Amino acid sequence: MAGNETVLKPKTVTKPKLEKPKLYKVILLNDDYTPREFVTVVLKAVFRMSEEAGRRVMMTAHKMGSAVVVVCTRDIAETKAKEATDLAKEAGYPLMFTTEPEE
Ligand code: TYC
């Protein structure tokens, strides 16, 4: 080698800052009108839950007033909550899904 290679040294070193995305909970709210079976059907259809998991979450909301369905990114949480709430609305039920940031 001729010994005349240029070595470029970066003047500033940028540390990659990857913010981990904030997570959001989708929350199922109890009400007095939506049939239990319908709640389970929505949980299975929108959140891909098994019959057993769907019933468990539905019964938790029924007894406690609300239940966490899933924790995911804000975008997905809001889309799923709307999809599920809209499905119920179309069927004439007041069933509601909300979202909130995880602590
Ligand atoms: N409480 C409703 C009933 O007795 C059933 C129900 C369960 C509704 C969970 C909403 O998130 C809910 N028919």
TrEMBL record:
Keyword terms of this UniProt record: Hydrolase, Protease
GO molecular function, one term: peptidase activity
Coiled coil: none
Keyword Iron belongs to the record: no
Domain Adaptor protein ClpS core stretches: 19-98
Gene Ontology biological process terms from the UniProt entry: proteolysis
Entry-linked PANTHER family: ATP-DEPENDENT CLP PROTEASE ADAPTER PROTEIN CLPS (PTHR33473:SF19), ATP-DEPENDENT CLP PROTEASE ADAPTER PROTEIN CLPS1, CHLOROPLASTIC (PTHR33473)
Subunit organization: Binds to the N-terminal domain of the chaperone ClpA.
Task of the protein: Involved in the modulation of the specificity of the ClpAP-mediated ATP-dependent protein degradation.
Family: Belongs to the ClpS family.
Name listed for the protein in its UniProt record: ATP-dependent Clp protease adapter protein ClpS
Source organism of the structure: Rhizobium halophytocola
Gene name per UniProt: clpS
